[in-house]
Design goal:
Length: 308
């Protein structure tokens, strides 16, 4: 009968590799240094190989140690996560959740959604970071991030909450002066208010149910890296903009702006929650994800996740 794996020793190995020191690993794990040393010795005896190169000045992983590290780190991470989750479930949820979100969406929609979650879970601390740049969730230590895009393949775990329509919009005063385009090619005679972080680059792309795809470069008189900064120029009738419906919703209802080219549809984007790979999520993070999924499913601009 085969022996059970020495999971404790593998978890200790992962902590030693993470800290680069037997002493620091022992301190982090609240163990004695001899206990840590014996655990590594057990593994090396069992495997008949050496996991660390040791000198008087430094320690580094051997090839065998490097090959083992990823799975050993998962053992440590899963163990920490399950204990944290069970501890949280036996008490009220507590601890910090680090969240990244796009600037405009974060201020206009995520921020207003959170007071109700905070009232439900007063021992949870929310640490929010807003930026339109692409946040490295793993390297920057975020528990989750909101992404509004057509996501490329990624090692991150993604949950699609809803589709978000992009709309070509302008102010009534703009259309009174310049008219409505009849075809995307007509946009060459118009002026763009452009969001520079769009994956499409300078060309605006559209799809028609009968005529297929069409891309048109539109001369820009304003370029910004935050879509909300386009709104004053849009209201002033200075150009057209491709805006996500969550930004345009209120202005469309009030009549301050209106859509054009209704038969030509820009490529859909979607609202996602992404989380780091590999670790079970603490209960507080799972609770926030469930809360946000339910909240944004009811947003008036949200399109069913199966659509588009």
């Amino acid at each position: 009968m085969s022996r059970l794996p020495d999971l404790e020793a593998w978890a200790i190995f992962a902590k030693v590799a993470e800290t680069g020191s037997f002493a620091r690993a022992a301190a982090d794990l609240a163990l004695s240094q001899p206990t840590v040393s014996k655990a590594i010795g057990r593994l090396e005896t069992r495997l008949r190989t050496t996991l660390f190169h040791r000198t008087s000045r430094r320690m580094s992983l051997t090839a065998a140690g490097e090959a083992s590290l990823e799975r050993a780190a998962r053992i440590l991470g899963e163990g920490e996560a399950v204990e944290a989750e069970l501890t949280e479930q036996s008490q009220s949820l507590r601890g910090t959740i680090r969240i990244a979100a796009p600037m405009s969406f974060g201020v206009s929609h995520l921020g207003p959604a959170l007071p109700r979650f905070m009232a439900l879970h007063p021992d949870v601390v929310l640490d929010l970071h807003f930026s339109d740049g692409l946040t490295d969730v793993v390297a920057q230590g975020f528990d989750l991030a909101l992404r509004i895009a057509a996501l490329p393949d990624s090692s991150l775990l993604a949950r699609r909450l809803c589709s978000v329509r992009l709309l070509l919009v302008g102010a009534p005063a703009y259309f009174a002066r310049h008219g409505h385009p009849a075809h995307p090619r007509d946009l060459a005679q118009h002026r763009a208010l452009r969001y520079t972080r769009s994956r499409g680059g300078e060309a605006w792309r559209f799809r028609h149910p009968r005529h297929g795809d069409f891309a048109q470069v539109v001369p820009a008189m304003l370029q910004v890296d935050n879509a909300e900064a386009l709104v004053p120029a849009l209201h002033a009738g200075l150009g057209l903009a491709l805006q996500p419906e969550f930004l345009a919703w209120d202005d469309l209802r009030s009549g301050r702006i209106e859509t054009t080219l209704p038969d030509w549809t820009p490529p859909a984007i979607a609202l996602h929650i992404v989380t780091p790979p590999g670790r079970a999520k603490p209960a507080r993070v799972q609770a926030l994800i469930a809360f946000l999924a339910a909240h944004f499913a009811q947003a008036p601009w949200a399109v069913d996740p199966q659509a588009a």
